[in-house]
Automatic annotation (TrEMBL):
It comes from the Bacteria. Belongs to the pyridoxal phosphate-binding protein YggS/PROSC family. This is Pyridoxal phosphate homeostasis protein. Pyridoxal 5'-phosphate (PLP)-binding protein, which is involved in PLP homeostasis. The modification N6-(pyridoxal phosphate)lysine is found at K26. It holds the Pfam family Ala_racemase_N.
Amino acid sequence: MSIVQTIAALEAELAGTAARLVVVTKTHPVERLREAYAAGARLFGENRVQEMAAKQPVLPADVEWHQIGQLQTNKVKYLAAFVHTVQSVDSLRLLQELDKQAAKHQRVINGLLQFHIAQEETKTGLTLLEAEEILQSPAYQQLRHVRLTGVMGIATYTPDEAVVRAEFRQLRQYFEHLKAGYFADQPQFKELSMGMSADYALAVAEGSTLIRVGSAIFGSRT
Ligand SMILES: *Cc1c(COP(=O)(O)O)cnc(C)c1O
């Protein structure tokens, strides 16, 4: 199937669910991003700051750029002018830097708290305790140019669906716990970013609002 056909098929699968598609465009040249755009995709995810910063001016202005990979604070300045959502918020320090750089551009950047849900040691992210420490800190409460809009997580890469499903459920419970405890009066805290090419169907069944799909659309990355 072509990029356009695959995106159309995915959108048809998502119709009637809570989930929207973030097309993960990392490593792919801008021509392929243009094809995805022509197919109606508007949410694009990249994991390298330089790559996103190079592609952004070339694509139409209504693309929502999502940073999905770990973000070093010294690189925030390269995406602060345009990034819509940083899905990989893993520290108070990063939130503070996002706030500082977004203020320079008089804008607000959305953030998702990234949780560690996988069994693999290598997958980064916060624990619930760490997230609550951030949310309770006076420093967080002073931020005006960054706003948290939900949570994100990466499940274990395994064919064992029970494992993946349990991890997505765990993430959903974190989301609901934080929503009730810290964001009850803030409707913008609504995103549950979970699900990739291999496991998005399970994620959608578990209530995902953002699936991040790359290789199922573009083929494997070389
Ligand atoms: C690369 C990446 C994806 C997309 O992975 P695919 O398996 O190609 O769909 C999703 N989320 C994150 C955080 C990624 O780094």
